[in-house]
Amino acid sequence: MQQAEEDLLVMAAQQGNEAAFNYLFRHYLQPLRRFAYKLGADNDSAQDAVQEAWILMAKSLHKMQDVRAFRSWLFRAVRWKVLERHKSASLPTVPLDDHMHDESMAVDANLDGDGSQNFLHRCMQQLPAIDQQALYLFYLQEMQITEIAIALDVPAGTIKSRLHRARMQLKCLMNDNEE
């Protein structure tokens, strides 16, 4: 979905257009579920966290002044709902990449079928969870640096440095493990 199209849909939803709201919901449902799942939620908790985030968004959408922040706000809300659920359930958080085997989360099909994808996933599992989150949002969700900063509640400069560090670590890990 193009940014201009999303902006128009958000503005329409803010004015009570149910069709626009439903379209946004359907468009973001799977990416948000996958993100919640990658944050360590099981399937049911991921579903619940996404639903809670949408309920929160539905209640406060009319207050959103910058419609361009919609996507970032959604991912941030899901992240906080997952963290709340972990905290309230006293469950330890699971590293982000423990669920990278999920085929719906497959990195690009540009990787050949000889195990390169599994190799990449194994290497990613060795990165800190916060770096994995930044990589996921940047490459798989194609979010901008500023959007990721909002979603992860850190400055944009921090996201840039995390992405750079994660790329360098991933490169080293892949080179070390290939030998």
From TrEMBL:
SUPFAM superfamilies the UniProt entry points to: Sigma2 domain of RNA polymerase sigma factors, Sigma3 and sigma4 domains of RNA polymerase sigma factors
- Identify the keywords attached in UniProt to this record, alphabetized: DNA-binding, Sigma factor, Transcription, Transcription regulation
Source taxon at top rank: Bacteria
Q: Which GO terms describe its biological process?
A: DNA-templated transcription initiation
Keyword Ligase listed? The answer is no
Tell me the InterPro entries matching this sequence. RNA_pol_sigma-70-like (IPR039425), RNA_pol_sigma-70_dom (IPR014284), RNA_pol_sigma70_r2 (IPR007627), RNA_pol_sigma70_r4_t2 (IPR013249), RNA_pol_sigma_r2 (IPR013325), RNA_pol_sigma_r3/r4-like (IPR013324), WH-like_DNA-bd_sf (IPR036388)
Pfam families attached to this UniProt entry? Sigma70_r2 (PF04542), Sigma70_r4_2 (PF08281)
RNA polymerase sigma-70 region domain: from which residue to which, for each copy? 24-89
Tell me the ranges covered by the RNA polymerase sigma factor 70 region 4 type domain, including all copies. Answer: 120-170
User: GO molecular function: any one?
Assistant: DNA binding
Q: Which family does it belong to?
A: Belongs to the sigma-70 factor family. ECF subfamily.
The family database entries (PANTHER family) matched by this protein are listed as: RNA POLYMERASE ECF-TYPE SIGMA FACTO, RNA POLYMERASE SIGMA FACTOR HI_1459-RELATED
This protein is called what?
RNA polymerase sigma-70 factor (ECF subfamily)
Its taxonomic path starts at: Bacteria, Pseudomonadati, Pseudomonadota, Gammaproteobacteria, Pseudomonadales
